[in-house]
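Troubleshooting log. The previous structure file for this entry was overwritten by mistake, so regenerating from the original sequence record. Sequence copied from the archived sheet and checked twice against the printout by T.R.
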Amino acid sequence: MIVGIDIGGSSIKGILTDKSGKIYSFREIPTPESAKSIDIAIYELVEYLATSATVSKIDLRAIGIGAPGSVDKKKGVIIASPNIPAWKKYPLVAAVEKRTGLKVFLENDATVALVGAWWKGNGSRFRNWLMITLGTGIGGGAIIDNKIYTGQSGNSLEIGHTTIDYNGRECACGNRGCLETYASAPALVEYVRENLKKYSGSSIHARIKDEELTAKIIHEEAQNRDELALSAFEEIAEYLGIGISNLINIFSPEAIIIGGGLSAAYKLIIPGVKKVVSKRAICGLKENVKFFPIKDPLRIPSLGAAKIAIDYMNES
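Regenerated output below.
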């Protein structure tokens, strides 16, 4: 039995599975702020997954973890993670192995989403395709000629930190004008916050009297055709379309699969993306690109993390 952990800026998702990819248990919890608290949360999540599936810890073989930011897979270290500031050259693998007593394998979070979609999702149909994860940040992954591409360090396709405005907004990574400052869940929230006065009749005003403004609220009100919420999704779709046009011009993929928490709003985002792509991407590259939302966005990345652990265990 293998545990797969998908860590995001907002939540941690865990899954218990076997070599076939059968799901025995799943849980999602909020991401704590401190590095030590994240370690404890992962330990407690592993305990919960085993207990809820009535599986003995003796039967657990390994943990695969997908983490946001730059990772050193060989050393098991998070080099830096803009959306989890507590991680700076943090030895996550050693910390989790010490707490759980299990072998731990580390990978970038967007790569585990890619692997999950390749293994149990809708990516297996294509030889050349891209994954884009939309959430607290924006990540990415690539399958090139039916092989995972991760670059020399295993940290390729940091799509969220490609520059779309060289003198633009400050990003947590230290750069300016990064795509994720314009097209992520926090960017969606920021757009609504900045335009609330302009849209005095928006239903969002009533929602945030008793609730904190979130991307989920904006999505719900957009489904109810709220003008401000719809405008916010049009805004991020335009910026995302610019970023995706650049990727199409570079990779010429067969397909692009959209994952992450914001993939729930795929139907609101993708028409605007396609409109921008049709204008900006190069003729001969853009015409046959297919777009899909990730299948089961909550569980697929965790399955991908587990699959990476399974493959490493098979090699050893």
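The longest strand covers residues 23-30. Archived copy saved in two places this time.
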